[in-house]
Amino acid sequence: LPDNQVWGIAADADGGVWIGTSGGLARYRDGKIEDFREKLGIPTGAVFNLRRDTENVLWISSRLGLHRLEHVPNSGKADLPVRPDLGAAQQRGRTEGHKLTSITSTNGLPDQHVWCSARTQDGIIWMGTDRGGLLGYDGKAVTMIDRRDGLVGNQVFAIAPDTDDSLLLGFADGGLTRYRPSKSPPSVRLLEMQLNNQVVTNFAALPKIMTGNRVTWEYREIDLKTHPEKRQFCYRLANHSGETVFAGVTKNRQLDWVPEKRGSYSFEVQAIDRDLNYSEPDRVMIQVIVPWHANAWILTPVVSVFGGLLVWAFIARVLYLRKSREAALLSERVRIARDLHDHLGAGLTDLALAGDLVRQQIDQSGAPQVLAARLSESARELTRTMGEVIWMIDPTKDTLRSFLSFVSSYAERFFAGSALRLRFEFPPEVPDLILSAELRHSLVMVAKEALNNVAKHAQASEARIKLHLSDQELHLSIEDDGQGFVTTAVVAERHGLANMRQRLRDLGGQVEIESATGQGTRVHARVRVPRK
Predict the structure, then answer these.
(1) CA distances from residue 387 to 239, 343, 384, 440 in whole angstroms, order as listed
(2) pLDDT of 214-269, one tens digit each?
(3) What is the rounded distance in angstroms from the CA atom of residue 440 to the CA atom of residue 406?
(4) pTM of full prediction above 0.85
(5) Three-class HEC string of 152-216
(6) C-alpha span between 264 and 245 (Å, rounded)
(7) How far is CA 182 from CA 125, 178, 226, in A?
(8) Residue 216 and residue 198 in contact, taking contact as beta carbons nearer than 8 Å
(9) How many CA atoms lie within 13 A of 452 on its CB side?
C-alpha cells in the first residue's frame, strides 16, 4: 500500500477493491496491489473518500481536489494474452485503461481539500471540504455554502443525497444537517451600455458601434437568498451565425469588449444563485461597423496616395543616404590627406634636409657616415609610418583582432631596447567584432599618445595594455607604475591628453585619466561598439 492509513474503500467492477490512503490511490486485485499514484499522471495527494456511481465511474476525494476516474477501452493493452482463469469482467479490466479528469482550483474551487462528494439527479456535483464548507459544481460555475449561509461549520466530512435531491451533511463537530437546495431561479437585468463616453439605456435604439471602440455592459441581479459576495453571472457573446465569440462566469457586474470585426452580435447575461440556478437571460443585439476610413471605396485612393508618399519618401531617403555617403567619403579623404601630410610630409622633409647635408659634406670631406646613417633611419621610419597609414585606411583591417595585433606590434617596437617591461592583457578568445576605420584610427592615436607619455614622462618600470568587452562597450587601458602627476594641473597643460578625450568624445565615447603623484597613471578609453 502507498500508506497504512486507509480512508476510503470502493468495489471495482472487475472484482478488485479501490483503496484510498494518506499516500494516494491503490487497487487490490488478483492478490496484488497496484499503485495508481504515478499511473494516473495527475497528483491526487491523500485520498479521503472513494465513491463508485451507477455509471461505473470512481469519484476520488483528495487533498488536491475531486477526481473522476473512468475506464477507457483500447488503451494499448489489448494485445495481452487471454487468461482462462479470469472472468469476462476481469479480463476486460486487463485490456482497459483509465481516464482521470480533475476538479481543482483551476476550475474555481476555493478549497481543494475535499473530504467527500455526492451527485444529485440534476447533475450537480457536491463536495464537502475542509475549510470551504459545501461546494457545488455544474461544469461551468462553482458555488460555496458555508457559515455565512447558515451552516453549523465549514468542515463537511460526509454527504449523502436524499430522494428529494436534498443533501444530508455530516460535520466534524456540528452533527447532521439536511440542506434542501432551492429550485427558484434569480433574475437579472441589463442596466446600461457605455460606448466610449456615451451611456445608453434604451437598448431598442442602440447606435451602431465602430470596430476598435470599447463597449461596457452593466447588469444587476435580484437574488435575496445568495450572499452578495457569492453572486455570480454567466455571460455569452455570439455572432450572427450563433457561434460563441467568448463566454464565461464572473462575479463582476460589468463586462468590457472591444469589437474587432463588423457584423451583428448578441450579448446575453444570466444570474447564478448559490444553488446553481440560472436566471432567464437578458439579451441585447449589437451592430458593429467599420469606421469610414476603413471602407474600401475610401481606402483604395487613400492607400494609393499613401503608397505614392512612401515611394517619394523612399527615393528621398536613398538620395539622402547617397549624399551622406559622399560626405563621409569626402571626410575620410580629408583625414587621409591630413595624416599623409602630418606623417609623410615631415619624413620627406627630413630626408630632403639630410640629402642636402650629405651633398655638402661629400663636397667637403667625402665621409658622410653620420648623415648617411640618419638618412637611412629616416627612410626606415618613413616606411613604417607609411605602413601604419595604409593599415588605418585598409577596409580589410576593420576587425578587433587586427587592431590588437597592430597595437601589440607597435608597443613592442616602440619600447624595443628600453628596460621597461611590457605586459598585455587581452581576451583569450577575440570575438569577430567589426571596428570602423574612424574608430580604429581614434583608438590607435589614443594608444600612441598614452605610450608616448609613458616613455617621455612616467619614468616607469612597467607598462600594461589591457582590453576587455562588456555588453556593447570596448574598454582599452594603458597603465604604468611611474611617478604619476596631478591630473587637474597636467591635463589642462598637455594638448595630447585633451586630444585623446576629444577623439573619443566625437565617437560617443570617453577617456578617463587617473593619476596621482608616485602612484602611476591609468588612461582608460571606453566606447560603444555594436556587437552583431
Answers:
(1) 77, 11, 5, 15
(2) 999 999 999 999 999 999 999 999 998 889 999 999 999 999 999 988 899 999 99
(3) 10
(4) no
(5) CCCCEEEEEECCCCCEEEEECCCCEEEECCCCCCCEEEEEEEEECCEEECCHHHCCCEECCCCEE
(6) 12
(7) 15, 13, 11
(8) no
(9) 10
